[in-house]
Recover the amino acids of this structure.
């Protein structure tokens, strides 16, 4: 049986109503005898609705009436819970804050669903009916239960790909130079511990194995189908897999979303087919899957490389690059637990891989090659970041992401959007999620060799042992540049080294044993360093001279390794020119010292591993509850504004924006918009002199660049003159049509100028920005980004992570700023974008932070809804 969720929007626009239904699909077996037929459906497939959930928006626009019904025979299976959860996500995305409904007193099962949902529930009993109201704000309980349900389902679905009992290769060819033949032979030659069936209607056998004309003719059950046929025939073949009851499909074939609009449509239809049968899909346009587990032994790729078994899992979006990655891993002797090429990610994505590998006992380190992140789905906007954070707590995740250009910044409509389009935002996102980001594939494998074979450094103090001064200096510089320290050695360590090293040796840190150092001296020195309380990390450098061979030194290091590990030391080597897991650097217990070609690479990898250790120690924090927020009024303000501008993103007018911000306790300096010089002069008198005039424009972000700001205006005549000057400057630039008027504000003096902003990232959803504000925001780019929602720890770290924090602490005698107030502002902004998903971009710039205890003043703000 397969349960599928279906969306039905026939009852009106999605913003006003939504219906979800569960269809239960029963696949009958065996195949009917010849001559049998059915009416209205294909034989072997029956569908019926077993559950329906729906909501309709009420006149109060932030409230909707909802109803759920689950067929008696299917109650208690979590269907009602999932319907409620997904309806709530859809409703929240459309500005609905509350569900109301009625439940009969005898409907105990439905009341349990509602009460265990995690949403805050209020209920009143009237005669035989419970009248209930659900606050759809996602509480920690809602989030936790949703995550757990999704995780269990994902892991179960991924077993069909990584631990199948039977595989059908659809399109298996007899031509030895074909991809399909190579893939089929790889399954056989590797000794897959299951059954493999070739499917080819044009031949009787492939590689001496009987072939079947169709997957439907295979007499046994099939867990996994690998499809290698022309793209225009893939959907038909996959539909037959669904009728057969196949659980997972890997589509190697190209010709889908990577080939333009026609390919996108073909891919969409393919996904519809797999989901309608409850199947998962890897690809299309991918390389396949490898699992080195001896109980599986599966090479379902067209690569001739089958890496050694190990504890590193590797996921890649690029099929072509996957070949090179496998070959490189083999050269470095890096053992893999599994390898998955996800191609176009039409269904299975890096999110699914992360959740599976988190619980996979054979996997200790996860490597990802990412070209882009998964687009946020309606129900799981923060999916990648949330999943990655959870996995990183358990196992290190290392990622290299291509596409590091800032071309996207040209399309941004705000300071925040422009900054987020660069890699500054992505770096911050990786750090928050606990992912170790690297810049190149070479660095990816450097991290893999370190994390797979050595404990994560418990501190950042490094001891360097070498037989050459030059590389030691390079290593010391690289350590210092990456935040690692070279402390003075313990006095007992120095005394022990002097006992056997020559007088010409440099016994400090680095320890230069001179070019004549023997393997025995390496061993003795390492045994002494194992006892040094000031060293958390040991970097061993060896430049092969004539007198001492590499194998002897490697054996000496290996001999000392158990004692170093017992003391919790992280040990790496730099055998100049050699990379990977050297066979001579492995102990009889199976411990290994990774070797780096150059000491700088070792230092960089160690620094990243130490940063990961610090992230693991970081407190999780909490999202604080705020009780002074008027969510109902905020929803009404947004609903009114959206009613006039449903078809396009638009800037809120100053008055509506100020009202919305005020609902969340965020106050902007008094501002009024004026369309003429006379109106500006009149409003200035109401605001109170001195005032500031600022250009009011939907298209010009940087007002100062066009002379669009006039400060310290002290009377109405100066205001009128300033209005005319701004208009004249725009006319001279040929941009008079960009001026809608001016904003009149009270002049605010003093304070540290900062920026707080929000932008919608296509991959992560809302990003929150903090940093140096004013006219220098994009020049210095002294900013920090975090994924929404912010915890109190996130807010503290954001404020302290930028150089502008020095100004808040009090720079060279200046008074300290109100740090707590700005942290509170960040948390209130996070709360606002949680409740108002229509916020596309927000700029609060500058935010003037006053002296400690005096709060802040927002001098300028832009808010775009969509």
């Amino acid at each position: 049986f397969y349960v599928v969720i279906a969306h039905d929007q026939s009852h009106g626009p999605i913003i006003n109503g939504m219906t979800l239904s569960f269809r239960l699909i029963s696949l009958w077996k065996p195949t009917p005898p010849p001559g049998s037929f059915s009416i209205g459906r294909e034989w072997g497939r029956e569908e019926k609705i077993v559950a329906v959930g729906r909501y309709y928006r009420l006149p109060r626009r932030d409230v909707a009436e909802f109803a759920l019904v689950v067929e008696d025979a299917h109650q208690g299976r979590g269907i009602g819970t999932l319907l409620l959860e997904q309806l709530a996500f859809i409703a929240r995305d459309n500005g609905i804050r509350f569900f109301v409904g009625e439940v009969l007193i005898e409907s105990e099962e439905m009341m349990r669903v509602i009460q265990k949902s995690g949403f805050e529930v209020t209920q009143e009993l009237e005669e035989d009916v419970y009248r209930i109201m659900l606050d759809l704000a996602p509480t920690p309980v809602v989030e936790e239960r949703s995550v757990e349900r999704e995780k269990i389902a994902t892991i179960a679905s991924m077993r069909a790909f990584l631990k199948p009992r039977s595989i059908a290769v659809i399109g298996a060819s007899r031509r030895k130079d074909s991809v399909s033949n190579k893939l089929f032979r790889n399954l056989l030659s590797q000794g897959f511990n299951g059954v493999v069936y070739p499917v080819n209607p044009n031949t009787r056998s492939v590689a001496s194995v009987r072939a079947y004309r169709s997957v439907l003719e295979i007499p046994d059950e099939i867990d996994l189908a690998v499809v290698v046929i022309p793209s225009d025939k893939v959907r038909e073949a996959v539909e037959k897999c669904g009728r057969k009851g196949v659980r997972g499909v890997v589509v190697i074939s190209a010709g889908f979303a990577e080939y333009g609009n026609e390919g996108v449509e073909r891919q969409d239809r393919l996904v519809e087919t797999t989901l309608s049968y409850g199947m998962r899909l890897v690809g299309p346009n991918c390389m396949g899957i490898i699992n080195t587990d001896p109980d599986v032994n599966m090479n379902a790729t067209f690569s001739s490389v089958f890496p050694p078994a190990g504890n590193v899992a590797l996921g890649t979006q690029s099929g072509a690059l996957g070949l090179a990655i496998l070959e490189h891993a083999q050269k470095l002797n890096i053992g893999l637990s599994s390898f998955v090429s996800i191609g176009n990610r039409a269904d299975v994505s890096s999110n699914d891989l992360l959740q599976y590998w988190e619980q996979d006992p054979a996997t200790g380190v996860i490597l990802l090659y990412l070209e882009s992140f998964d687009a946020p789905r309606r129900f799981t906007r923060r999916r990648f970041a949330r999943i990655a954070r959870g996995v990183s707590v358990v196992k290190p995740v290392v990622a290299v992401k291509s596409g590091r250009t800032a071309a996207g910044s040209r399309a941004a409509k705000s300071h925040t959007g422009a900054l987020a389009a660069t890699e500054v935002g992505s770096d911050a996102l990786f750090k928050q999620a606990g992912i170790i980001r690297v810049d190149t594939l070479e660095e990816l494998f450097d991290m893999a060799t370190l994390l797979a074979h050595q404990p994560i450094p418990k501190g950042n103090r490094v001891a360097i042992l070498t037989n050459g001064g030059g590389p030691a200096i390079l290593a010391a510089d690289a350590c210092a540049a990456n935040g690692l320290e070279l402390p003075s050695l313990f006095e007992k360590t120095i005394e022990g080294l002097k006992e056997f090293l020559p007088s010409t040796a440099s016994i400090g840190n680095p320890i230069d044993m001179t070019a004549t150092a023997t393997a025995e001296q390496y061993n003795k020195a390492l045994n002494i360093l194992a006892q040094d309380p000031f060293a958390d990390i040991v970097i061993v450098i060896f430049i092969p001279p004539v007198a001492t061979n590499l194998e002897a030194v490697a054996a000496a290091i290996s001999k000392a390794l158990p004692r170093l590990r017992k003391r919790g030391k992280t040990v790496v080597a730099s055998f100049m020119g050699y990379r990977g897991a050297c066979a001579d650097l492995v102990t009889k217990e199976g411990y290994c010292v990774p070797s780096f070609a150059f000491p700088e690479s070792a230092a960089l990898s160690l620094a990243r591993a130490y940063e990961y250790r610090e992230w693991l120690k970081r407190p999780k924090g909490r999202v604080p509850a705020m009780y002074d927020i008027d969510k109902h009024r905020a929803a009404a303000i947004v609903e009114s504004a959206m009613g006039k501008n449903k078809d396009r993103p638009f800037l809120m007018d100053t008055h509506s924006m100020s009202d919305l911000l005020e609902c969340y306790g965020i106050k902007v300096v008094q501002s009024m918009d004026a369309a003429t010089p006379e109106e500006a002069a009149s409003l200035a008198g109401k605001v109170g002199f001195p005032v500031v005039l600022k250009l009011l424009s939907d298209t010009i972000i940087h007002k100062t660049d066009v002379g669009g700001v006039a400060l310290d205006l002290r009377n109405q005549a100066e205001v009128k003159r300033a209005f005319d000057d701004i208009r004249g400057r725009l006319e001279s630039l040929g941009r008079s049509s960009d001026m809608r008027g001016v904003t009149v504000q009270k002049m605010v003096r003093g304070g540290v100028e900062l920026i707080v902003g929000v932008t919608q990232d296509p991959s992560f959803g809302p990003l929150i920005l903090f940093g140096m504000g004013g006219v220098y925001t994009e020049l210095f780019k002294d900013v920090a980004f975090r994924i929404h929602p912010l915890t109190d720890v996130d807010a503290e770290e954001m404020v302290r992570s930028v150089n502008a924090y020095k100004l808040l602490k009090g720079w060279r005698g200046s008074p300290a700023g109100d740090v707590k107030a700005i942290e509170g502002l960040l948390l209130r902004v996070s709360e606002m974008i949680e409740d108002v998903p229509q916020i596309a971009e927000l700029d609060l710039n500058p935010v003037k932070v006053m002296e400690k205890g005096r709060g802040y003043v927002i001098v300028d703000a832009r808010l775009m809804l969509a």
